[in-house]
Amino acid sequence: MRHQIHDLLAPLPGTARQIHSFHFGPQQAERKIYIQSSLHADELPGMLVAWHLKLRLAELQAQGRLRSEIVLVPVANPVGLEQVLMDLPLGRYELESGQNFNRWFVDLSEEVGNEIEGQLKDDPKHNLQLIRSCLRKALARQTASTQLQSQRLTLQRLACDADMVLDLHCDFEAVAHLYTTPEAWPQVEPLARYIGAEASLLATDSGGQSFDECFTLLWWQLQQRFGEHFEIPPGSFSVTVELRGQGDVNHGLASLDCQAIIDYLTQYGAIAGETAPLPELSYPATPLAGVEPVATSVGGLLVFAALPGEYLEAGQLVAEVIDPINDSVTPVHCNNAGLMYARSLRRMATAGMVIAHVAGTEAYRSGYLLSP
């Protein structure tokens, strides 16, 4: 194992933070896997899974079973991890800028496209190596003027040349689910099976330039630009894995999730060993544009009638919102049928608040598809 320390831009003297990356397997391997956790710093199930993975990967390396380089970043957001206000962790948004830590990673598709134009060949392997080299150089030329930009650039530089990127998150109260692209779904489906994902949500571009999409979108955009004349292989696929809810931090679940990722990496060929049998897929992949954010029009006490993992029919009751002053009880229903994969942790709703998400089968939304 190789342990690397990456210094972030310090916003003030004496306040420097670091990203720690742990590198396993052969350094010059043909393929590279990148795994990080807790980019939203108040989402901690993935951090415990990453710790279990760190121990397992060290064992597998000692046994000589690692065929790919595997880079692990257990604490992807030291900036947000320290944001605790009156005993409440606030790890989703940077307090200084108000920006979501998992949005607005730098888009270099046009810059890389301009640089490779005239250098592409009929050889897809040459094109793959060329694009990765130009992407690394383009990221190296980027400069950060804030701590947040420094953190984003550090993570992008670590993952930019990986064949596979796994970004471990969780929701508020939720079943296991994941986000990836339709193009990557054939490669990702085994992970969905091993991890027990009850919803798999697909979008090529969900808006917001999140960490996972800053890689897949670059390759997709280069394919759109040059694909008629040159073969541009899909040089990277990314998955955001949502490991249930924020309270699901325990060794039992983390051990199961760790084994699921090990099984997937074995099936992928990154780890030598016998491939574990594939479980059944709990729920078919559906478009992210088919997800209904169920919102309440009034504020009050939020009393749920449906559980995460429950399939809801169109018009089914999701929750009631109670005003304890005037005694009004307002039912909140879903408009579309689908699997309710996540719901809010809060039990006092405000007017207009999204209280749950239901994965429907038909796309009906467009534009920005993510939560704030």
From TrEMBL:
Domain Succinylglutamate desuccinylase/Aspartoacylase catalytic intervals: 31-254
Pfam family, any one: AstE_AspA_cat
One annotated GO molecular function: hydrolase activity, acting on ester bonds
Record keyword Nucleotidyltransferase present: no
Swiss-Prot/TrEMBL cofactor(s): Zn(2+)
Keyword Signal: no
Highest taxon of source: Bacteria
UniProt keywords, alphabetically: Hydrolase, Metal-binding, Zinc
UniProt cross-references to CDD domains, sorted A to Z: M14_PaAOTO_like
Stretch forming the signal peptide: none
Database matches in SUPFAM superfamilies: Zn-dependent exopeptidases
Protein's UniProt name: Succinylglutamate desuccinylase/Aspartoacylase catalytic domain-containing protein
Source organism per UniProt: Pseudomonas fluorescens
